[in-house]
Amino acid sequence: MQYVEDILKNGFEQTTIFQPDDYEGKVTSTLIRKRNTVSSAKAVLCIHGFNDYFFQEIIADEFLKKGFHFYALDLRKYGRSILKNHKQNNVRDLTEYYEDIDSALAIINEEECREIVLFGHSTGGLLITLYASERKGNEYFDALVCNSPFFDFNVSWIQKKVGISLLSFLGSINPNISLPVSFSKFYGKSLHKSGFGEWDYNLQWKPHVAPSINAGWIHAIHKGHSKISHGVSINKPILILHSSISVYPSKWSEEMFEGDAILNVNDIVEKAKCINSPNQKIIGFKGGMHDLVLSRKPVRDMVFESIFEWLDKIENNFFEKKETKKAVTL
Fold this sequence. Notes:
The chain has 330 residues and is α/β, with parallel strands linked by helices. The chain has eight helices and 13 strands. The strands form three sheets. A nine-stranded mixed β-sheet has the order 1-2-3-5-4-6-7-11-13, sandwiched between helices. Strand 1 and strand 2 (13-22) form a beta hairpin. Helix 4 (157-173) packs across helix 6 (215-229). 44% of the residues are buried. InterPro entries: AB_hydrolase_fold (IPR029058), Hydrolase_4 (IPR022742), MAG_DAG_Lipase (IPR051044).
């Protein structure tokens, strides 16, 4: 693959992966990497959530310290992969992203990584869980780490049964119906340096208020949630991380730094019970924000400590020690 310097600089590189055209025309995904300076067969592939892209260098820093090569994927129509013909974040079925993940894993395998961890945040956590269930027997990865996975909509029971179901049905018929996005407008301000946060990132790619979505997006997510609810089985160990509480401030408050302002953490725990895995661990973190690795330093330190303790414990039993895997041909 031909890599060029990434926008993050500091040793990060990127390569564009050209995918088959879809209902909006041309499609690409973008693989970002930072190779370890020491020889290693281990790698992590980081997949972002909704209204997001890879900018969290701290994830790379921590995995590099532990001897991993670092990779991240900007999925089609997100971040580095947005083209002029795209509606940002647009999707009609989550399986559309499987091509992006397959291509990324093929490249990582070709670059001689034999032990691969999939790390997914929010929608990325939902995505890698579904991907693992549908790639059983053809896995080119060894473990899953879900950072506040989006296993259910954060709305009332009646809204899920009636409102979301109706919108999903409409999205299956006319996926281009435009809908506003509804989640805490304070979340972005709690993260970005321009507000009250400590992080700097591209506000066009990750705005405080996400652009409108299509009903097709609701249908795609609802279909994914339904699969989880009905039970999924995966062959690989999975670590599910979440904040200990959800927060719902009606005005700006320091409470934003103390919990998950996007998802209902009880939903995460409850839906995790629907995942059958040879090794599953669920951990809640007091003071954890929605993106746990962007929480205040004492919390994110505990998050990374928990991740690597778990990976150390499962490595001998679940990680595949073998010659370089062949490229993915799924």
